[in-house]
Amino acid sequence: MFSLDRLRALAAVATHGSVARAAQALHMTPSGVSQQLGKLEREAGHTLLEPHGRSVRLTHAGRVLSRHAEQVLGQLAAAESDLGDLDDQVLGPLRIGGVASAVRTLLPHALADLTTRHPRLLPTVTDGEVVDLMPRLLDGALDVLLIESWANRPLVIPEGVTLRTLVDEEAKVALSTRHPCHHHEAVDLAELPDTAWATCPPGTEPHEALVQALRARGVEPDVRYFVAEHTAQYALVEQNLAAALVPAMAGAVAPPGVRMIPTTPALRRDISVAWLTRNQSPPVRACVAALEAHAA
C-alpha cells in the first residue's frame, strides 16, 4: 500500500512542476521530497520521474499514479471536511483572490452574509488577474478564487482545481460619443480597424480575449493603453483616445461621454469560483455556497 505522504509528494510535484517548488508548498526540504519519491518508486515498481533540462518531469507512470494520488488526497480532504462540518467549524482564516469587477460587485454581499452567519471566520481579499492569482491558489497561498474566462478564449484549468460558474455575462465595446460608430445599435469589430484600444496588460485574460476577438474579425489590434482599472479605461475612451471591451459587471459606471455598444457576434465571459479539490474545508464550502446564493 502506498504511503499518503509519498502520494502527497508526487501530487505536489505534478502540481508545481518541480521538486523545489513542491518542497516549498509542503514545507519540506527538496532532499526530503526526493527521498519520499524514491521510496514511492520502489513501492510502485516504476520510474516516476525523469530528467528534464535542469529539473525533472513525470514519466507516463508518474502521470498515471499522480492522477490517482490527486483523487485519493481529494477524497481524504472531503472526509476531513465532512467531519469538520459536523461541528460547524466555519472559522479561522479564509484567503480569497479575485478579478476586480467580481470583487467589487459580487463578493461584498456574499462576505457580509458569510461573516454574519460565521462570526469567527476571518476573510482576507486580494484582487488581481487570473495569471497572477492561479499560481497562488496552487501554492496554497489562497483558498478561493473568483476568476474570469472569456468564451472566445476559454481558461485552461490546472488539474486538481474545482471550478463552478457563477455568472455568464455579455461584454460590450465602450466608445466615445465622438467616435464615428458611437450611434450604432451594435458594432462588428471589423468596423473598427483604425481604432486604438485600452485594455489590461499582456498575458491577462481580458487582453488576450480582446486580441483574439479582433484578429478573428480580420483586425490587427492597435493596443496603446495598458491599464487594469475600467475607470481608467473609461477616461481614455471618453476623450476618444481609445475603445475598450468591458464586461457587464463594470459597465454600470461608464461616464456620460461613453456609450456601451453590443458586439456582433456577441462576446461573453464567465465569472467562476475556483478552489483546490483537496481543500474542501468548511470555510471554503461556506464561501462557495454564499457566492452561489448571491450570484443567483
Automatic annotation (TrEMBL):
One of its GO terms (cellular component) is protein-DNA complex. GO terms for molecular function: DNA binding; DNA-binding transcription factor activity. It comes from the Bacteria. Belongs to the LysR transcriptional regulatory family. This is DNA-binding transcriptional LysR family regulator. Keywords: DNA-binding, Transcription, Transcription regulation. Residues 2-59 form the HTH lysR-type domain. It holds the Pfam family HTH_1. InterPro entries: LysR_HTH_N, LysR_subst-bd, WH-like_DNA-bd_sf, WH_DNA-bd_sf.
